[in-house]
Description:
Elements: H1 3-17, H2 20-35, H3 53-74, H4 81-99, H5 101-108, H6 113-123, H7 132-149
Helix pairs in contact: 1-2, 1-3, 1-4, 1-7, 2-4
The structure holds zinc ion.
Amino acid sequence: xxxxxxxxxxxxxxxxxxxxxxxxxxxxxxxxxxxxxxxxxxxxxxxxxxxxxxxxxxxxxxxxxxxxxxxxxxxxxxxxxxxxxxxxxxxxxxxxxxxxxxxxxxxxxxxxxxxxxxxxxxxxxxxxxxxxxxxxxxxxxxxxxxxxxxx
Length: 151
Ligand SMILES: [Zn+2]
């Protein structure tokens, strides 16, 4: 999924734990749970996902800025803002580890990196292009549910 649903879901779950390490761990687990839901990715619209990295970067920047803006709005209203932030960080941690070319190769060559990246790729369910509206809907619905549940 995109960063926005991950950030918000991680923050919601994180604040529910009331504990920093647990918030981070639950954030990571929420990432894998959401990645298993069929969803549209920026690469869904590309013939060759590796050929148009500029498109992926542009979407990622807009997505992350939107997610952070919503977090900045929500966190002051959280029962435990710091813990919610750790949940949000845990929720994007798998993508930070997996998708940043700067350290992706290095992580792949560690004892934990290869199984971690393989699991991440395995659980990821990018929806076929012809169903892309459904893949957007699953993410919008995720954000809507989090916003409704936020206290
Ligand atoms: Zn992911």
